[in-house]
Write a structure and sequence with these properties.
- By secondary structure, this protein is mostly helical.
- The protein has one domain (about 45-230, about 275-490): Growth Hormone, Chain: A, CATH 1.20.1250.
- Helix content is about 75%, strand content about 0%.
- It is built from 27 helices and no strands.
- The chain has helices at about 1-15, 25, 45-55, 60-70, 70-75, 90-120, 120-125, 130-145, 150-175, 180-185, 190-205, 210-220, 220-225, 235-240, 245-255, 260-275, 280-285, 290-305, 310-315, 315-320, 330-355, 355-380, 395-405, 410-415, 425-475, 485-495, 500.
- Helix 4 (about 60-70) crosses helix 11, helix 5 packs parallel to helix 11 and helix 7 (about 120-125) packs antiparallel against helix 9.
- It is globular.
- GO terms for molecular function: sugar transmembrane transporter activity.
- InterPro entries: MFS_dom, MFS_ERD6/Tret1-like, MFS_sugar_transport-like, MFS_trans_sf, MFS_Trehalose_Transporter, Sugar/inositol_transpt, Sugar_transporter_CS.
Length: about 525
């Protein structure tokens, strides 16, 4: 008996530092603590973190299908043998079909963050499947009445699902991931988004309207089955007082040999902060860290969309047709989409190696060059010069534009959104960032045809190029580097003043240690 007591005392002595029982002991009713941390940062098992990210991220493929839907479908609907033979591809109806998804996404982003705080990340992510299901059913019903209003409603409702998913998935991934792979897991969000776009480009080009929309609807089934097994966010569980459940989830995500006591302790600290704060705009904007974070995220969203990426995505087929490229527009569009997926995978491997900031600066600079050259191609076309010898140039420019966009501004902003905010403001901050993003999607896609009519294609692409140049400067000057930092370390960095940073290399005279009593 006494020997057992001495053994337990020895194990307790190995835990770092004196004080009350660790959170794990509290959760487990005073049982034996897990293996302590021995210097440096421990690394947990990654398998279940990847699997959870794959399940949650797969709903983003539906968002990508909705976004890419117009590129192959609008030319199909404009043909004489479609159920809308009088549809003008350059008219107001097409402009609204294209842009109403973005308006729906704004509406979907508004309540999703707060809803996830109330009902949990897992249930909220699962519910996002419903707007997509309704969208595809309405798409399948539209030919029965040759109804453009039905397409309007379908696009708007699909947008609601896309907006909600864009808020919820990055937050969830940021809360389940270890710092060492948080950037990599965050890139799964845009990878699935790009996969959805590629599917729309491919299936929409070669399948009938009904078969294409039916396939999009059927692809919801794997998500609905797998989301049942999705683990809840441990951060949310702790905030709800379900500490034992949070312990089990962390053991699942990190592995049985990982000491979760330190992580549980950090989550308990965060939970105390959440309980004393409302998590509204006042908490978000009331601190220097909050203002810096929301300024960074809104700026990244602004530059991501104002570089013109969604104008290129929505109108890719038309751009190649009007450019009189020698390559089949549908094939060129599919190539563009595949390039985006491949580059997303490359970013997943490199983001935690090179960091967020260098990728953003490179991306903005290279996009400037690509759109500048594309604008010059259109200028030669407008001046009636011979462009047959460079008919491949639009594909090369748009392909390279997608490459460098995916390397930085296509992937990195979503990783940063999941990293910059504490739990109490993560919901509202994510909603504001994604609302900004989708409002700009609406603005760009709604005005792209207007700009090309007023300014011509050359000046329009040069305008986007100048914004890309500003995006590189913004990333270099304003965006903080978050590579390899814990969420608490990021908050400390955001709150630090410039004069404090200048002192970090100053010598600090150590205080003398107190003499031990005789």
């Amino acid at each position: 008996m006494h020997q057992a007591a001495r053994s337990e005392d020895n194990e307790m002595a190995e835990l770092p530092g004196p004080g009350p029982r660790s959170p794990v002991e509290t959760l487990k009713g005073g049982g034996q603590p897990l293996r302590p941390i021995h210097g440096g940062k421990q690394e947990g098992r990654k398998l279940f973190q990847y699997l959870a990210t794959l399940i949650a991220g797969s709903i983003m493929a539906q968002s990508g299908m909705n976004l890419g839907w117009t590129s192959p479908v609008i030319p199909h609907l404009s043909r004489n043998d479609s159920f809308l033979p009088n549809l003008d591809p350059d008219g107001e109806e097409v402009s609204w079909i294209t842009s109403l998804m973005a308006l729906g996404a704004i509406l979907g982003a508004v309540p999703s963050g707060k809803a996830a705080d109330k009902i949990g990340r897992k249930i909220a992510i699962g519910i996002t499947a419903m707007p997509f299901l309704i969208c595809w059913v309405l798409m399948l019903l539209a030919p029965l009445g040759a109804s453009i209003p039905v397409l309007y409603v379908a696009r708007f409702i699909g947008g609601i699902g896309a907006g909600a998913a864009c808020v919820l998935v990055p937050v969830y991934i940021g809360e389940i991931a270890e710092p060492s792979i948080r950037g990599t897991l965050g890139t799964f969000f845009p990878i699935f988004f790009s996969l959805g776009i590629v599917f729309s480009y491919t299936a929409g080009s070669y399948l009938s309207y009904m078969a294409f929309n039916g396939c999009c609807c059927a692809l919801l089934v794997p998500f609905l089955v797998s989301v049942i097994f999705l683990p809840e966010s441990p951060s949310w569980l702790v905030q709800r007082g379900r500490k034992a459940d949070a312990y089990k989830v962390l053991r699942l995500l990190r592995g049985a040999n990982y000491d979760v006591s330190q992580e549980i302790g950090e989550l308990l600290e965060e939970s105390e902060q959440v309980q004393v704060k409302e998590g509204g705009l006042r908490d978000l904007l009331g601190t220097k860290a909050g203002r810096k974070a929301i300024g960074t995220c809104v700026g990244l969203m602004w530059f991501q969309q104002m570089c013109g990426i969604d104008a290129v995505l929505f109108y890719t087929v038309q751009i190649f047709e009007e450019a009189k490229s020698s390559i089949d527009p549908n094939v060129a569009t599919i190539i563009i989409g595949i390039i985006e997926v491949i580059m997303g995978l490359i970013v997943a491997v490199t983001i935690d190696r090179f960091g967020r900031k260098p990728l953003l600066v490179f991306s903005g600079s290279a996009m400037t060059i690509c759109l500048g050259i594309l604008g010059y191609y259109y200028k030669m076309k407008e001046d009636k010069k011979d462009i047959t010898w460079i008919s491949w140039l639009p594909l090369a420019c748009i392909g390279m534009f997608n490459v460098v966009f995916s390397l930085g501004y296509g992937s990195v902003p979503y990783s940063i959104i999941s990293e910059l905010f504490p739990p109490e403001t993560k919901g509202i901050a994510g909603s504001i960032s994604i609302m900004t993003n989708w409002f700009l999607v609406f603005l760009v896609t709604r005005t792209f045809h207007i700009l090309t009519r007023m300014l011509h294609e050359s000046v329009t692409f040069w305008l986007f190029a100048s914004i890309c140049a500003m995006s590189a400067l913004f990333a270099f000057v304003y965006v903080p580097e978050t590579k390899g930092k814990s969420l608490q370390e990021i908050q400390t960095k955001l709150a630090r003043r410039k004069k404090d940073r200048g002192r970090k290399h100053e010598a600090v005279e150590p205080k003398p240690l107190p003499l031990a009593p005789n």
